[in-house]
# Entry
Amino acid sequence: MAINVIEDTTYAPRTIHDLDELLQNDNKVKVAAVDVDGVLRGKFMSKKKFISCANSDGFGFCSVIFGWDMHDTVYTRELLVSNRANGYRDLQAVVDLSTFRRIPWEDNVAFFLVSFLDPVTKEQICADPRNVLRDVVERASKDNLQCLAGCEYEYFQFKETPQSLVDKKFTNLQPLTPGMHGYSLLRTQLNTEYFHDLFNLSEKFDVPIEGHHTETGPGVYETALAYTSALRVADNAILFKFVAKSVGLKHGIIPSFMAKPWGNLPGCSGHVHVSIRDENGKSLFAVQDYERRAGRANAAYEDTKFLSQKGEWFLAGVLDGLPDVMPLLVPTINGYKRLVGGEAFWAPNAVTYGYDSRAASVRIISPPAVPLAATRLEIRVPGADMNPYLALGAIFALGLRGIEKKLALPGPPIGQLTLEDRRNGKVQMLPQSLELATERMMRPDSIAREKRVLGQDFVEHYGGTRQHEVRLWNEAVTNWEVERYLELA
# Structure
């Protein structure tokens, strides 16, 4: 069976002839790329220009989207892809026909995602998030393995507009609804048109949703995206944010995927579920049929007895490299505030795993809780501010490394650990700030630097972008500092 690197969207064209027919009544097309912060950067193109580019090597797109931050501030130091020395040159944007959609709230305009190549060497641009994940899933496909994933977002919402945010200086914002109402059937009847638009317009935009409900916190929703190929899920995750923010604008609502908007409330997670399917369509993580009742005899621990040997090696690989790839799972200054509270706020902050454990960094989901085919791992470290391409790319790269090296688990599952184990260092803690996480990722012997994980070029470029973020934070003077020290220091 051929292994699909990415599942096509419903009406994706297979040929240029298909594309011509698909766009016969259009006069323009919208295209977008994804930067390292997960921000969509794009433009409209005439149909004629777009079809010409799709039928050739692509088109020029300014590399500055990899040379500045999410607020269009040029990075503090010169980085590999886009810099003053190369004049912020154009990159070669290549249209991915498999990503075709129509935007239902924008007059059904046609929409495609693009990826980037070096215009001279024609090699993939290392900083392009879609390329990071594509490289991993293509390597897996060469071994007849398909990477599958799902994504869940929690997000606060505010009855605000972009202008009111500025006018209020981002303070005293009005939550969409008051109180703590997880899984509420009543709170969804407030702002009901907006709530249903998120689901319905996502579906029309070919971003299928499996679950959609309120989560605990004022104005918090949770949306679970349908499980499919890893690259398609990452596309869907990025595009769901686009749906939410676009629909929100029409309703006078700002949905926020910031990881920790409130200090005294749970943060917003971006949990991802991962598994691998072999060439016969069977889960690589599932035990054999004859083991479905008693589990695997040679499992390292009781918690992994319904996880295959390769699944256990994959889990060990993720745990082995997790501290070295934290900036890809938690990429912002604020994201680490979500982890400070640890398990008190359902946010794991250590290298831990466990069967069906929401307290662990990696939750094993396997029989007897689910059927064999649904065996998977849930990585609970990322926040809603993650870039899904980078998070999934890192997770699959580490897991496949674990299989290749047949790595052993680092220790017992979380259910066998005690507070004393944490105090005496038996439990490895994750970096607690973006600065520490970036320093660890950029160490010369970091697992992230290995060629079959992320590679030197990516680590240098992406690490530089995180150092820029840290520098801006270190230079900032916050309200907390002024209120605490101005009078009494």
